Amino acid sequence: MGWTRRQVLKGLGGLLAAGSALGLGAATVAGEAAPSGLRLLGATEARILRAAAERLLAGTPLDEAALAEVLRWIDGYLRRQGEPLRTEVRGLLWGLELSAPLFGEGWARFSRRDADSRDAVLRAWSTSRFALFRQGYAGLKGLVLMAGYRQPAFLRSIGYDGPPHG
Amino acid sequence: MIVRGRERRRDLRLDVDAAVVGSGAGGAMMARELSARGLRVALLEMGGHHRPADFTAVEADMLEELFQERGARATRDLSVRVLQGRGVGGSTVHNTCLCKRAPAELLARWKREHAVSGASPAELDPAYAATEQELGVRELGPDDLNRNNALFRRGVEALGYRGGFLHHNRAGCRGAGYCELGCPFDAKQNALKVLVPAALEHGAWVVSDARVERVETRRGRARGVSGSLLDALGRPHARFEVDARVVCLAASAVGSAALHARSGLPDPSGLAGTTLRLHPGGVVAGLFDEEVVGWRGVPQSYECTEFLSFAEDAAKRRVWLVPVFAHPIGTAVQLSGFGAAHGELMRRYRHVAAVTAMVHDTTRGRVRVEASGRIRIDYWPNHDDRAQLALGLREGARILLAAGARRVLVPFEPDPLWIDDAAGLAAIDAAAIRRHRLPLTAVHPMGTLPLGDDPARAVVDSRGEHHAVGGLFVCDGSLFPTSLGVPPQLSIYSFARHLAPHVAAAC
Ligand SMILES: Cc1cc2nc3c(=O)[nH]c(=O)nc-3n(C[C@H](O)[C@H](O)[C@H](O)COP(=O)(O)OP(=O)(O)OC[C@H]3O[C@@H](n4cnc5c(N)ncnc54)[C@H](O)[C@@H]3O)c2cc1C
Ligand code: SF4
User: Fold this and answer.
1) Is residue A115 situated within a structural domain?
2) What per-residue string of b and e applies to B339-369 under the rule 16 or more CB within 10 Å gives b?
């Protein structure tokens, strides 16, 4: 049975609130600055997104510069999209960060996990019996792939000779 | 007169005979038809007014600029991606130019079951014929086949299935293959190129970046519309009000139903926004030894109608098969999984041919407006439609194998289903098609404000006028009382043309 968007938001909003309460919010993480060029995502959100993007785009020409560009583009895209999507995506990131125990994957936060363990959490989301998680996975995957496959190096790597990004 | 709302910071007030909301197939045709009759028309469009040079063919940029919700529109649970246009010309700017008339059997059913009058094939013929002539619709031939379509044709013919060339509205096409991102060569004979300039010539106002937020009524009659002028990022920066004797909704099956709801219009049948059809589609991909380079050339030139019938006893054949190809982002989001496995699939991009199976659906979806103002679409195909989808994907895979594909991939999440021979096809059944397990896409929303003469079973009458609000007309894809089963643009253009005399008479 699918969850309603309200339930999704409530669920993710709950995780977001929990994240803040646990002192994980962007403003409360001492000594961690958001990567330069980001105007919407806080330092911790950027770290979670980066950890997810690294795995979602493994197997592509993803280097440091490309990863930074993925983050920068998503930050801009969310700003252009406005509310309520912005808040939902931020809630989604926090959901990802804190959800591993629900899948029996231990207590470590997503962004602190090694590659295999992050893959396990992403896969658990994609196959969950709760529509909430599958939906979150689909949304995050779409966003990250869009941010990746707009970059010239990605296009070259698959032999696409369409117009490079201007 | 062109007004670009993003460049205008002052409020705007107009007094016209007809306000047309949305400038796609239905709206642009209606605006041209009314202005050609000497009426004062305001064509209001929430997106930008683009020139061919704006169509850069850069996928991410065009998705953001030309599509609703910056390319992110989907059903509420993200299980079906819904692609729709935003900008002068609407979805005709980035569609693939297929033109087909509504089948005669379907029109007969509309008359019989939905009390639609005045819309028999003979009565619609003048509007269809004039539209085909005006948009330069012609049948394609072997020279128009790119490799993706040629392989599809080979498979269809090898299996002895019914197939044929499609009709298109393009002129001077160079086969560049960017149709879905807007044509940089201005080769599409669409609403933006043909109808909007004609409306302007006849003196219409074309106001872009103008989001209509409310249909204004007085004593049961439409008397105009109001809304916001948007800046380049889509943020309101000024207001507009248009006083009009009639209002025509042409904001698409999603946008018109949303505006109907937002405006709190009466809905005696209770149907407004509750009969959404989508022609939901899924994709199968064949891997070939040869290079296909499917993004080059005319994207869709050949069809297979073996499993699509409109005859009375044809309930079990409701799926249309046609080649399809997406640019890299569109492909990446459709493919299974993530990481190394996904990257490996993407590297075979040049060797892929793909087929989409699109269902002539019976599912009733819904369009609503959330408290935040966001449009909410609920739709998941019912069991019969999922069975049709499975049939279509099986047959699409069979066609690809017959064309010489080494393997065929069905992009289930998180792992693809690989099919190496006909024996493997049985694995694609209705039970396999579950939410988020198979990405579905819809490009033909229809049917949310259906027409018919019985106010208990339709929102507007057969002349397109609202049953409960005088002077309010609908002239876009919302009109259809069922799914159409064929690409809808030609019917939307032609219905608008066919209904225009009634609208003019009400002005
Ligand atoms: C990728 C793709 C390929 C397609 N290929 C084909 C094809 O080959 N053949 C075919 O027949 N069909 C095709 N279609 C579908 C076809 O283009 C549409 O069915 C058709 O254009 C719909 O016409 P319409 O007038 O109902 O709405 P649209 O053409 O979508 O126009 C509606 C317009 O209203 C505007 N609008 C919405 N809300 C508001 C508001 N509140 N205020 C002001 N303006 C508003 C929108 O921005 C939009 O410009 C395709 C669609 C897509 C997405
Ligand atoms: S294939 Fe033709 S219509 Fe499509 S983008 Fe290229 S030139 Fe334009």
Assistant:
1) yes
2) bebbbebbebbbbbbbbbbbbbbebebbbbb
Hey, which of B82, B91, B128 would you mutate to test ligand 1's pocket, going by the most ligand atoms within 8 Å of its Cβ?
B91
Question: Domains in chain B, start-ordered, CATH in brackets?
Answer: 2-69+84-134+180-275+447-506 (3.50.50.60), 139-168+278-442 (3.30.410)
Residue B76 has what DSSP assignment? T
What are the tokens at B353? 């041919």
Q: Say which of A58, A84, A164 has its CB closest to residue B372.
A: A84
DSSP B412: -
The pTM for the full model equals 0.95
A-B contacts (CB, under 8 Å): 130
Summarize pLDDT for B333-357 with one digit per residue, the tens: 999 999 999 999 999 999 999 999 9
Angle between helical axes of B147-159 and B383-402 (0-180°, round to 10): 100
Question: What is the tens place of the pLDDT at every residue in B82-94?
Answer: 999 999 999 999 9
Domain that holds residue A81: 42-157
Residue A87 inside a domain? The answer is yes
Could you tell me if the CB of B85 is within 6 A of ligand 1? yes
Cis amide prior to A84 (ω within 30 degrees): yes
Query: Which amino acid makes up residue B457?
Result: R
State the ipTM, two decimals.
0.92
The answer, yes or no, to whether any atom of ligand 1 lies below 6 A from the CB of B443, is: yes
Q: Which residues of B touch A141 (CB under 8 A)?
A: 333, 338
